[in-house]
Write a structure and sequence with these properties.
The chain is built from 22 helices and 25 strands. The chain is of the alpha+beta class.
């Protein structure tokens, strides 16, 4: 009988309650104990006690019960300042799954265990914010991830006697986990806010099942008519090997973008009833089962060692440790969305997530609801472009002869600026070239853009131009004279001949006859004071501001991340320039997030006109992207047209007020000569901090500008001589940031 009592005592001892890791360290230090003293008393190594305090491991019998007793006695001597009302100050939590080993940690104060025996950690210690929260909520990003055992970044402090903010719902562990395996093949999930989870799954199929049933990972939908974000599991190279996947892809696999369909891991998934999308098991993979009972079963995988995180968008993120990578991706997920592929893919998916095409109808006579179109959104079906909007090779152009080259009278050319000119004699006498760059130029251009929605374009001959109707117009703008234009509704004389780019053509050349333009470009010709007479048009009468919500979310993400980097809104010009000096170095991980947000804007707009990929495609044949409702070159053209027009409007406002003209423009960057090296030597500000209305303004908000770079005029003259020739002028805006010229300027 005594053996039974001993067994019961051992079972109780194996679950002796322990405070969170950070509290263990606080109690030891409060009593003046060293790691060595505790280790000697418990007959373990010093490193073992350190691991208990960092949350990397948990004490097992026979040490667990005496260690718990030690901490319990110390807690009576040194109670926490806020008693036990909040554990928001605890370090990374390690929540054990239901199938944990016998040494499973006890439930921490403020936590609970569900019927399956799984620990639900105290919500505030995980992140303190709802999944997919708005960017205004401070998530995880105020400082670099602290050492294990300290307060997780961004976890909100709770005042004494005030409970920590709750994190309820099915996604209390956040939108994603970065999985890493140790030498003992134990897998740990690193979540947002310093959360650590033991992962019991021993196979890839079991991992997917666990992610959907036990992990409590995912994110709430961004729109009431949308859907929740799928769990995202990010696998390190060690985790890949643990689950039977290669740590890296071979050259053939990388070229194919996936591992072979006959790979053992793929076959095991299929045997367990899981399916893969058409892109297979590659750097970004979606593993799912068909919807059952209205319940979506889908998990997203991201594998950085397979080049899932393009360094053009994510910098050195793939080289980060699992905790740091969880922080970077977590901040992005909370402020933008859970990534579902490249930043371009995520940018496109964000449009639909914020503006879903369908909604639930009102109940019918039987009380049932049905799916119906949401006003203000795109269709669930793809819409063919107008012939002038289609890119070469599109099926709507299959009637054209092979190798036919369309000119501006047949094709819409709405692209970003790439224009440059030689310096004048007076400009050569100035010592500096100063570049200014527009923040989130395409995002600012998307804000308020009226675009076509769910209806196909309608062809009209001899139309009367209406700036409120989105579409494409065939019109001759060659009569617009840039030497005399309206600026702020007043006629002004400018040095238009050669010192300013044309606002109508991306290369800045003056139009020579009829050409296709998007509505904002034609409207700008009217704004400059000139009449327009379109010959024909493709118009979209059903229109709306489809991208407004998309812009706002990305704008908030950008501004919030800049604020974390100590660059606030509404700073005076001088203070703004000072704050921008070395701003990314204050938190390199948030610098990665910032670049990813910017690439989400640019890539999302570019993805609206995704071209055919793969060697088997032939012109005239549809490619997969055309099946998307978001394959909309007309929307892309509208945004880029607005961005280019916005740039030109700022340049002529500055020219009219100061006589300064750009020497080069590349997309959202303009270069000027100046007597000093600062943007303040180009942009006039008075003592009240005001500058030329309608021109460039220094600041962090989208549409305002920052300093891109400064070089000597002699450097610029040298670049023009080195790369010029055959009537081409090198674009100094391409090199102004660093001054490095690595290759001949091809204009690409």
């Amino acid at each position: 009988m005594s053996e039974l009592f001993d067994a019961v005592d051992a079972l109780v001892a194996s679950r002796s309650p322990l405070p969170p890791p950070a509290e263990r360290k606080r109690l030891r230090q409060a009593h003046g104990l060293t790691l060595e003293e505790v280790a000697t008393a418990l007959d373990v190594r010093r490193a073992t006690v350190g691991a208990w305090e960092s949350g990397k491991t948990e004490p097992r019998p026979p040490q667990r019960e005496p260690y718990a007793r030690l901490l319990q006695q110390l807690a009576q001597l040194y109670p926490t300042p806020a008693a036990t009302s909040s554990i928001a100050g605890s370090g990374p939590l390690r929540a054990a799954p239901a199938a944990a080993a016998p040494a499973e940690p006890a439930v921490p104060a403020g936590s609970a265990r569900d019927d399956a025996g799984k620990v639900t950690p105290a919500p505030a210690a995980a992140t303190g914010v709802p999944a997919q929260s708005s960017a205004a909520t401070p998530p995880l990003a105020a400082a670099p991830r602290p050492a294990p055992g300290s307060r997780p970044p961004g976890a909100p402090k709770a005042a004494a006697g005030t409970p920590a903010p709750a994190r309820s719902g099915p996604f209390e562990h956040g939108p994603l986990l970065v999985l890493d395996a140790d030498d003992g093949r134990q897998v740990t999930g690193y979540g947002t806010g310093g959360l650590l989870l033991d992962v019991p799954a021993r196979s890839l199929s079991a991992l997917v099942e666990w992610a959907l049933t036990e992990a409590r990972v995912g994110a709430v939908k961004l729109h009431p008519s949308g859907r929740d974000a799928d769990p995202l599991l990010v696998l390190t190279a060690a985790a890949c090997e643990r689950y039977g996947l290669p740590a890296t892809l071979s050259d053939a696999e990388r070229s194919a973008g996936r591992i072979p369909e006959d790979h053992k891991a793929v076959k095991l998934l299929e045997r367990a009833g899981w399916q893969l999308t058409r892109r297979g098991l590659g750097p970004w993979a979606r593993i799912y089962r068909p919807v059952s009972g209205g319940r979506r079963q889908c998990v997203q995988l991201c594998i950085p060692s397979w080049h899932a995180l393009d360094d053009r968008a994510w910098g050195h993120a793939a080289k980060l440790g699992p905790a740091e990578l969880a922080r970077v991706l977590g901040v992005y997920a909370h402020r933008v969305m859970t990534p579902v592929g490249s930043t371009a893919v995520s940018g496109l998916e964000l449009m639909t997530a914020l503006n879903p095409p369908t909604r639930a109808s009102e109940p019918d006579q039987d009380g049932k609801r049905h799916s119906e179109h949401r006003p203000g959104s795109l269709s669930t079906q793809s819409v063919d472009p107008a012939p002038c909007e289609a890119i070469d090779g599109h099926p709507v152009l299959s009637h054209l002869p092979r190798f036919h080259i369309r000119g501006p009278e047949e094709r819409l050319f709405e692209e970003a600026y790439d224009w440059a000119r030689d310096l004048t004699d007076a400009e050569c006498m100035q010592p500096h070239l100063v570049g200014v760059d527009v923040n989130l130029a395409f995002g600012a251009a998307a804000n308020g853009a009226v675009v076509g929605l769910d209806a196909p374009p309608e062809h009209v001959t001899q139309p009367v131009f209406d700036p409120a109707v989105p579409g494409s117009w065939l019109v001759d703008l060659s009569h617009v004279d840039l030497s005399r234009v309206k600026v702020a509704k007043q006629w002004r004389d400018l040095e238009g001949g050669g010192l300013l780019p044309s606002p109508f053509i991306p290369t800045g050349e003056h139009p020579e006859g009829p050409a296709w333009y998007a509505t904002p470009t034609v409207a700008y010709a009217v704004e400059l004071g000139y009449d327009v007479t379109p010959l024909e048009a493709w118009l979209r009468p059903r229109s709306g501001r489809f991208l407004d919500g998309w812009y706002k979310r990305l704008r908030d993400a950008y501004v919030a991340t800049m604020a974390d980097l100590k660059v606030a809104e509404k700073l005076p010009p001088g203070e703004f320039l000072e704050a921008m000096d070395g701003y990314k170095g204050r938190d390199p991980e948030l610098g990665i997030v910032l670049d990813a947000v910017k690439m989400t804007v640019k890539g999302g707009i570019g993805k609206l006109q995704e071209k055919a990929r793969g060697g088997n495609w032939v012109p005239g044949q549809a490619w997969p992207a055309l099946a998307r409702p978001t394959w909309r070159p007309d929307i892309r053209a509208t945004v880029i047209s607005r961005a280019r027009v916005n740039m030109h409007r700022k340049m002529i406002a500055l020219a009219a007020a100061t006589g300064r003209y750009p020497v080069a423009v590349l997309s959202d960057c303009a270069v000027y000569t100046a007597d000093g090296p600062s943007p303040l030597d180009v942009l006039p500000y008075d003592t009240n901090g005001k500058t030329v209305p309608g021109s460039f303004r220094l600041g962090v908000s989208p549409g305002m500008v920052k300093h891109e770079g400064t070089q000597d005029v002699l450097w610029g003259v040298g670049v023009l001589e080195q790369l010029g020739g055959e009537g081409k002028v090198a674009n100094l805006a391409r090199y102004i940031k660093t001054g490095e010229v690595t290759a001949r300027d091809t204009g690409e």
